[in-house]
Amino acid sequence: MQHRAGKTVRKRSQKSGLPPGSLVHIGVQRVEKTKITVISYDETQFTEQSFDSVEACIPFRESPAITWINIDGIHQTDILEKLGACYDLHPLVMEDILNTEQRPKVENYDDYLYIVMKMLHAGGTDVEVSTEQISLVLGRNHVISFQEGIEGDVFGHVRERLRSEQGKARKLGADYLVYSLIDAVVDNYFLVLETLGEQIESLEEKLVTSPTSETLRAIHYLKREMIFLRKSVWPLREVISSLQRGDSPLVQDATRLYLRDVYDHTVQVIDTIETYRDMVSGMLDIYLSSVSNRLNAVMKMLTIIATIFMPLTFIAGVYGMNFKYMPELEWRYGYFLIWTVMILIGVFMLIYFRKKKWL
Known about the structure:
Elements: E1 35-41, E2 46-51, E3 66-72, H1 77-86, H2 91-98, E4 105-108, E5 113-123, E6 128-138, E7 142-147, H3 156-163, H4 174-209, H5 213-245, H6 253-318, H7 334-355
Parallel strand pairs: 3-7
Antiparallel strand pairs: 1-2, 1-3, 4-5, 5-6, 6-7
Helix pairs in contact: 4-5, 4-6, 5-6, 6-7
């Protein structure tokens, strides 16, 4: 479901033989520059800046305010290496950030938490669902987010709440910011599922009225989408449960209540995905049954036609023989009589078939 047509994708095999912690980007190779955005805030002040170099982020490490460093594009490994060194990130964490094929998970490194999740995007009438990896690092007063792509994200509402002085976002700590980011990703899952639901409903109508080979291809496509969605979302339930029930001092009790709400939303998303999977699997069975029924109907009609013409063909064959002495050939009205007999036989058989409800 990672639609990367026309783009070079670096695969895991290129890391074969390298020592653990080697910084090799696995994913789509991009030419755009990595974007660095820093938001610093507390209850009374807010600043938002964009930088071209990692060095500009260093002063924010000692700031008492909450700092959110967002990295759009992880293909420039030198930038990530400098940022990891600045915030003392473990080499294995940096390796996982650069590997965009990670399973959603959470790891506790005492001084910070490392969280991996998948962000989904759906657009167009063909419901092309794409995914990108989101890596979050939660420290005591900072959050670093690493996004695989640079085309946009689902964190716009989070930024708007931070820019506004209203609400809890500016009053609570970095753990609440991580909750807000996770909540934004999970809420976007519902939008993606709504789009897929509309596609499934439309496909069901086509399946009932006029199923074609295109319908079968669409069913197989949706089936693959459901499998990949489940793979992307299912582990997130464990991640949120671990954050909610864990004993890390980086997550406050007040934030755990909000994480419980996100956990409930994640369970709803998983239930919806399972429902859609069952629906798509049922649609495949319906399609096969529909095609089989249509074939049976065609064969039934052909059989009836062949059955009607069997006695007619027999009569035509008898009087088509080239024997010299056939008395019926000399009858004046023999031709019309034979036609009458053949028509009566056909009508009789049609009436009989209809009485038997074969027609």
